[in-house]
Structures
1.
Amino acid sequence: MKDTDIKSGASSNHHSGRAPYIHKVGKPPKENLLKEISATVKETFFSDDPLRSLKDQPKSKKFFLGLQAIFPILSWAKDYSLTKFKGDLIAGLTIASLCIPQDIGYSKLAYLPPQYGLYTSFVPPLVYAFMGSSRDIAIGPVAVVSLLLGDLLQAEIDPKNAIAYRRLAFTATFFAGFTQFALGFFRLGFLVDFLSHAAIVGFMGGAAITIALQQLKGLFGIKEFTKKTDIVSVLRSVFTTAHHGWNWKTIVIGVSFLTFLLLAKYMGKRNEKYFWVPAIAPMISVVVSTFCVFITHANKDGVAIVNRIDKGINPPSLDEIHFTGEYVVKGFRIGCVAGIIALTEAIAIGRTFAAMKEYQLDGNKEMVALGTMNIVGSMTSCYVATGSFSRSAVNYMAGCHTAVSNIVMSIVVLLTLELITPLFKYTPNAILASIIIAAVVSLIDINAALLIWKIDKFDFLACLGAFFGVVFIGVEMGLLIAVGLSFFKILLQVMRPGTAILGKLPRTTVYRNVQQYPDATKIPGVLIVRVDSAIYFSNANYIKERILRWLTEEEEKLKENNLPTIQHLIVEMSPVTDIDTSGIHALEELFRTLQKRDIQLALANPGPIVIDKLHESKFADVVGESNIFLTVADAVHTFSPRISDEA
């Protein structure tokens, strides 16, 4: 009833010289079944009301607004100015200087030739600039997704079989984009939220350690190295080659420039005015180290170099994607996993910067944009692209205004592919390794892990489980552990919801948890229990048994102290948002058990959905309308008027 909340204020008011008015719990009007289903579907899949901008608009405008919804660039392009372009130009050039050396390194994580990293920073950012709604996110290959993709691909095909490996990579990228697009188009973005923040922190931290350890091959100049990603295999591979496989010149180059990159990163972190220092440090490292190797011919002394990056823009690759045959299922499985991780990272980054600039980000539109760019990317020799946190942070601090910064970056990458890729021939692999290590250090978020420990110990266990799963078993298993622990926590909270005994706060008619408020007093002869979740088949029996256990424990305490026994049990149902048939059966069993013990059951403040189901099941008649109250205070006043009047 619409006025229930207004009238409820009277339920605890005291009138001079007479008992307070007790309002009955209202039964909501019966809704049409079709309308009820429609409202549920709308709230589940269209909670943001995506078509609200089209209401009461002429057909011509509806068409244009529809285009704007698909291509957000149309909505902000009309207000674009030279001032905004200056900011986007500077930001685009800055992130380009960061992405080019990173892309060459990240492609190695995916066991792909270096040009494929550059391809992935050319086409996908252009597609995203037209379809994405984030103004700050910088698109391209990222370390975690590159590692994950490489790990899953090389488990199916040896990277030495270059053509077959590349085809499976493009197939996986296509299905990663398809998965992302489908989640957004069918409004299923909420599924991504099942991967908890704690699990993501642990997974990212573990992946960062794994990536850094893998780079020891390039940093130490080791030629024979394990393909496994677990820490034991990697360290065994490193130390078994210590006496004959390490190259001292490579180590000097790698460690020197790694130190430089970490100092640059520290400088940028200490003072935001110097954000450009860590942004251009990788390019400076590449230029200087390449020049040094070229003039000293260090490559002849065992310093491994890039050797060759194919010149030219992305070749078409549609004909290389598997749409039939045995590799379709494998590509789909790998693509789904990589696509969801890429999606989770991009949405998290986009929301972070949207909150900082105070604008709204439509998660489902983002998924469609990311999916489209990866589908197009798979057809233009790209592998899975997503938002990069380090580049997006630089983009934000460099003063970007719109996605034009991604277009500027793409143009710079295009010029690099067309003009200067041969100059990277003498770039030492040790530099790429040091750039990757410096980039992934920021993925280890110790402060976030400590905060998780302080707030929720179970969340911290999920974080540790994901971290150690990645580090000691492998990336795929670590991801499964992260997802599994996230689901387990949800199941645990649903199956074992909280319950609490309530007491009356002094000088009020408010009833709260006696553990949270030690000065709250219990009412003689009355036990008040609050149930803190919906009551479903998965927890109904537990809730019933937990309430009876509370009752038994209280009666034992009363018996020890020779106090009056419990005569009334009030179940506070404010947090109970819904109840199913199993829940109602559990209440019926509770009612019968209490009857045998001469204890009256009462319900306080059931919500509209709950009270409707109680009436439909006739349980409201069983327990009695007079035993269903709007507030706990009303119930206590009815059962213990003397105590209530002392408030």
2.
Amino acid sequence: MSKTSPELLREAANLIEEALRRTPPAAQVQQIPVATTRTPVQAEVARLFAPYNGGGGGGAGARRRPARSQVIRRSYTHTFCCLADNKADKVPSIQLKADLLASGLGEQRVTFSGNDNDPMAVTNKLMEVFPKLQEGGGFEFLKIAGSTRSRNLSLLQCPNTGYTLAYLKDPSTTIGQATIYIRPLQQDLPIDSESSGHASGPAISCITCQKEVPFSEMKLHRANCDGTPMQETHREGEGDRCEENDREPPTDRDSVPVRPETSVQSGVEPVVIESGKIDLKELDNDWKIIKEPTLAAQVFKDNLLSEHATGKPLRLKMDVRESEEDRERALLSFYKQQQEWACPLHCTLDGGVGQTLLFEGEPDHLVPAASEVLIESNLFRVAGRMIAHSFLHDGPHVTGLSPAVIHVLFNGDPEMATIVVEDCPDLHIRSIIQMLELEELTQEQKDTVSDLSLSWDLPAVTKTNQRWLHNKLLVHAVIGRTMRQIKQLRKGLKDVMLWPLLTSRPDVVPLLFPKMAGMQFVPQMFLDKITWPVEDSDDEDEGLDIECKCRITGFLRVFIETASSDTLAQLLKFWVGWEMLPSELKVEFSGGTFPSSSTCFETLKLPAHYNTYKDFEEALVAAIDSAHTGFGLV
């Protein structure tokens, strides 16, 4: 009778148990070595993989390994910045970082090794990298608080065991890859750049200030170079050769309408020195201590121009009879060149402005145009050179720039800029942002706002984030989309070496970028500048008698005397191309139908066929309203 598989297995198991019971204990002991005998290959494999076995021949080694692994020895690399002030709570400026680095402090990449739980592993290494830190009586760690754009520092609380590598690696500290700032605990650390001894390599002459700088420090020097030539330091010993001693103090220019509250708003009063008590023979670089910003700017410009008076002249030649495209190409090609922009300027006009829109928006809310073509062509750096060059030679200014753009242009925090909805030049985007000012949004409005926010990597609108999203969209629309243009403008201003003046004297900035609302014109300012036609002039006035000439010039005088400040500003833009009074305004007669102007020659051309003032006024107003050019159009 056949048996099933389970029955056979059960019978085999019973036979094995019975055989084991019959075997004596001594025999079982003798069988153990035979059972554990291994071949050489098996022994080698067992030795190699002993750490991964819980028992066997490698058990003893496996039991000793956990005791050694409790001491964690791994390398850890992070960026640290050692501060000198024991009360510092702000991220140091670029200049301060340079001074700290030259003093053996500043920013360094530090690599730690040793026990993660030993605070001395951190302390000893930091004392090795920053030897001066030993004089601070201890130290504490800080990191940037809030967003990455913030300059505020917050304290990293020291644990009871002290700062350890384990603490720095702990995700709960939210340090991540952020720079850790080291602040001395009890007293300030000395800053002595002469003792740093980091300079190496041959001396190289700076192309901006001509100063000899060690090879290893040239990058740092270029980042902070203010453009002041080295010859400046030798002037005291060359008094007999210095022609500036015989110059007369420059008088205030009435052609620049400046808001009277400019210096008060800036809040910058370096030193109280009255303009009437200043002797320019003693000034030289002391423009920083002059109270009046207009005079301080003039002294800085005079010094800069005199220092480069013997340099290679800048030569610009343009035929105004050519097409607008050719004139624009000539102007842009001139400012795209790398030159010493403070050297003498020789401009030749053989015979009109272009139509490249660089700034867009409302008056006093202009922002750089968001055009990829302009950005890729580096035209905003060219515009920065033009603006600074014009200011250096007392030319016209860019008026009506948004205060938020000016704030960021001079290294202000975009999150701290005062931005209003009028600063957004795109009316469609502005209307979407204005929806967030409503108490309740319809579903359609929510979808419209969410589409815009998601396209700018911002969350969709909800009831709780409505106000926050309004601010974020406004910042991105005005600053985020123009950040590259602003950086190019900043580089252009630095190229002409105006940056030291503008950063040291913020009260001069409104002179470079005046507000259109603050440009108040009065009739007398125009009448004092006008050069009226004379009887023997070469105008297109053949056949015109003196009575006709007097009638037309009288109409113009009446128009100027009765016009408002805004109308005079529009007339000035039509006359010379911008809202900046030149040294002379010319009037000529022409045979045209409507008044016209030659902005390059600052000349207003008037037809002589008007018999009544009403006809003259209507024609002149029509001509003014048809002009849409200004300095914003280069």
